[in-house]
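Researcher: If convenient, please comment on what follows.
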Amino acid sequence: MLKLLKHLRPFTLAIILALALLFFHSLSELFLPTLMAEIVDEGVVKGDTSFILQLGGLMLLVAAGGTLANIFASYFSARVATGFGRDLRRKLFSHVEGFSLQEFDQFGTASLITRTTNDITQVQSVLMIMMRMMVAAPMMAIGGIIMAIYQDAKLSLVIVASIPVLVIAIYLVAKKGFPLFRAMQIKLDKVNRVQREGLTGIRVIRAFNRIAHEQRRFNEANLDLTNIAIKVNKIMAAMMPLMMLVLNFSTIAIIWFGSIHISNGDMQVGSLMAFIQYAMQIMFSFIMVSMMFVMIPRAAASATRINEVLLTKPVIVNPEQVDILSHKKGTVEFREVTFSYPGAEYPAICQISFKANPGEITAIIGGTGSGKSTLMSLIPRFYDVDQGGILVDGVDVREMDQETLRAKIGFVPQQSVLFTGTVADNIRYGKEEATDEEVKHAAEVAQAVDFINEMNEGFASPISQGATNLSGGQKQRLSIARALVRKPEIYIFDDSFSALDFKTDANLRNALKGETTHASVFIVAQRVSTVMDADQIIVLDQGRIVGLGTHKELLATCNVYREIVSSQLSEEESA
């Protein structure tokens, strides 16, 4: 929690103003019982109306000043807390955007969403309470004890006897509550994950009639969260009755012993009333502290989870000294590359070596799980290799600036991802400053113009969240247009023609030839018809290259490739 408070520096002035106003409010609260005691003991007893009016007016003035100070303190506290939450969310999101895929795999999307929303809200809420109570409560408690001793030192022993009981109760509740609050946030992660899967996969769920199953999954996760929340609240709920019990018994003791002092002439009625008020202030200060301790454990657990993200350093970072790129544009070379996913027993790809030159099409084909997509994800440096090296324009990608490297690449992922906005906005995602002509040309090459023109507003037609208003083939073509519009030196098509019919696939590949004459092109595909015209075809099997050459060369030399071809094409077609 303390590590996060360093981000409060921009709000220093507002914090100082809030604390100063709270200090003034606390002083006004401490002086009011003394003024009341003076009115009762001096004005009422002596029947001095002018004295009562004078001190009464002073009481109203102090009360009004304290109220205004409290209002402005609340305003500044809320401003600081909400501003802190805003800045922390921005910082957390920016930090997460710099993560490599390895860190995303480590935390999980659902957990990162919970940490950015619910966890920060918990910290923000407790910060506002801390600013309102953490200053006022100690001041009221210490000031109340001083003023109570001033009224009657012997009667103050009642308060001294009750304070340890309150402190022990707060300590025991906080000790039991903290581990449960952390567990509660983890359960919330699970609820978030199950709900997210249920919403994003609704088509599959309905297609397989698994609605009841998903409802049971959610109910189980929700019940886990509910049970631990009930357990936590039972522990926390015990605190308030205990506090009130100590408060009421203390009040009874004060009145009992105070009445004895009054009958002995050692104390005035007004002083006893003031003493009761100070006792109430002291006890309520401890109740305020107890309320903080109800929220602080959960906020501390949330702060720990936020810090876990903020303190996580991406494994993929820019080098201190960036190598200068050679004059070769679009050259990609793999040199004995081996890569394993974190925690995997075996490498995903092993001893991969080949070279792709500008103007050439390099196709990658192989069975499911052979490492095709993994191979492509290493070029933009989504992951770092374990052994060997990947050279782009003659420079190892680990020695290049990540932004410079990825600016050279037009990447079309295996799963088409479009964003909420218009068709033109999604194509311009590849090149923000692209003109309307460039956007239209990219769509024409990607064979997307026909269906775009059929939409109500053409290129200004909206894309819904998750692009649910488009078919799989339409999404793939817009993803291809997004890559084409930036005119990169390296094109990576990761199984991005799979949802296209054969005619559209053929037209698209013919159109691409005129656009990629000066760029290296990588095509990952399952269809032999998509890759058979490539300048070189890489055949992968269990993460290793088992064939490298043209279509005809591989038919003569590679058994794996022949099996793939024979499963898809007739002898006449394959020839």
Q: What stands out?
A: The longest helix spans residues 49-97. The domain at 325-408+490-575 is CATH 3.40.50.300 (Rossmann fold). The mean pLDDT is 83. The chain has three domains: 4-310, 325-408+490-575, 418-487.
